[in-house]
Amino acid sequence: MIKILFILLVSYGVTQLASFGFFPNNNPTINTEKILYLARLVKEPQQFLALFNGKSGQPAVQFPTDLSSFNKVSKGIYAKEEEGKNITVIKLGEMEMESYSLVIDGNPITVNVPVGSISKEELEKQMNEMKNMKPANEK
After folding, report:
1. Mutual orientation of helices 32-43 and 120-131 as an angle, nearest 10°?
2. What is the rounded CA–CA span in Å between residue 107 and residue 37?
3. Through-space distance between the first and last CA atoms of the chain, rounded to whole angstroms
């Protein structure tokens, strides 16, 4: 009984990790930021371990609703410094996005990125590098 419960909990955790936000809002476009973040965690295991060393009593950061005190950096990006901390707000709905159609491992995919953030060639190169990465525990 305990083994079954343990297996259910582990499978739930794996499912939650796998649905880490790769497909935001149940949209078929891949969120490349999450993929790049996970790739960085694989390359730097100390960052992965830092995820579990957080203090449990910390309040969640509230998203600022009034952006009047923020400086507009560019369309959809706002920033300010408060109490020695830099705060950046990115509103994807305001940003101009461009779509890139790529073929990775023979599978066609469409990726939406902010205009001017990355070239199609660089994105394709990074995605191909990620598919060739091995897990940190594999030699």
Report:
1. 50
2. 22
3. 35
Tens-digit pLDDT string for the chain (139 aa)? 888 988 988 888 767 666 656 666 666 667 777 667 767 766 766 666 666 665 444 455 667 778 888 998 888 888 998 888 888 888 877 888 888 888 877 788 888 888 888 888 888 888 878 776 666 555 5
